Amino acid sequence: MQDSADTRPILIVPYMWIGDFVRGHTVVRVLKERWPNRPVDLLVTTLCAPLVDYMPGVRAGIVFDLPRSRLALAKQRDLAAELRRRGYGTALVLPRTWKAAIAPALAGIPERVGFFGEGRFGLINRMRWGEKALPRFIDKNAALALPDGAPLPPEWPVPQLVVPPEEAAGWRQASGLGTAPAVALGPGSVGASKRWTYYPQAARLLIERGLDVWVVGGPGEKALAQEIVTATAGKARDLTGPDLRNGVLAMAAASVAISNDSGLMHIAAAIGTPTMGIFGPTSPYLWAPLNGLAATVLQTRSKLPCQPCQRTVCTMNDHRCMRDISASEVADIAQRLLVT
Q: What is the pTM of this model?
């Protein structure tokens, strides 16, 4: 039910991993359906800040980098002062950690909504229960935007990243990337076990079929990108770098995206680029984008008893869940997507 009379601003404290941040846009959309006249802001890291520019319904991103490994109370007080100045009426604290709720509490935001998590009595004053009964990560997050006790909808609104076509085209021209159909590869991921083995071979096949290939990712993917560039005799383009905006624009300008279960997969799907997600140790049901994938690629030759293990490093079966997905299979699927 909409409440159009309430105009108090809302703060969302989201998860700051790239893919989780993109999925958090569903929470924005649920809030705007419930309170169309309440501005919604997102707390955001410097890394994820470019994403906010493409998220409909978000008034502003509050850029603030808190260290992951310690409380940093002085920084929490500085953040709280900024939040207090902005006069929020409600804060949704999506992470279940104690640390994530400190600044909203110090800021005196009247309604601080979150799950019990790490025993956050006092920090969260609109406590929600039953987190473990919710099946998926998105259910746990978006449920906080509903009234307490409300049933989950059959489907959540999907995340959206709206990139103006002229911005993507201008970026492509400025980057000297031509106009041929391009496949964007996202070979990185958090956790080595989620990385598909044969990106260099697939890139070579795609280039042999007349397609441009771009390798997209952060500085941590530079070595993977160079391996792909070398395998294609320099024909693939290394677009890795520290600015996530380039990754967003590359995914918007590409004809097809191929990615592991990673933040770039969620970015491409939220933009609307036909996206292939390659899954091995993780479950598409739990972790695939709500937007849907043009193709979900899984190892299907034989059932592995360890799959999905959800581990960041393979400890059994020699990474067969990824190694048994061939380069030719992935290249063939990508080519079919280009003509559909």
A: 0.94
187 shares a domain with 220:
yes
**Rg of the chain on CA atoms, in Å:** 21
Residues 116, 173: one domain? Answer: no
Q: What is the pLDDT along the chain (340 residues), one digit of tens a residue?
A: 567 788 999 999 999 999 999 999 999 999 999 999 999 999 999 999 999 999 999 999 999 999 887 888 999 999 999 999 999 999 999 999 999 999 999 999 999 999 998 889 999 999 999 999 998 999 999 999 999 999 999 999 999 999 999 999 999 999 999 999 999 999 988 877 788 999 999 999 999 999 999 999 999 999 999 999 999 999 999 999 999 999 999 999 999 999 998 999 999 999 999 999 998 777 788 888 888 888 787 766 666 776 776 676 766 766 767 778 899 999 999 999 988 7
Cβ neighbour number for residue 162 with a 10 Å cutoff: 12
Q: How far apart are CA 129 and CA 144, in angstroms?
A: 10
Domain coverage including residue 99: 10-145
- In a domain, residue 3? The reply is no
Q: What are phi and psi of 90, to 5 degrees?
A: -145, 140
Three-state DSSP at 7 gives: coil
191 and 58 together in one domain: no
CATH number at residue 185: 3.40.50.2000
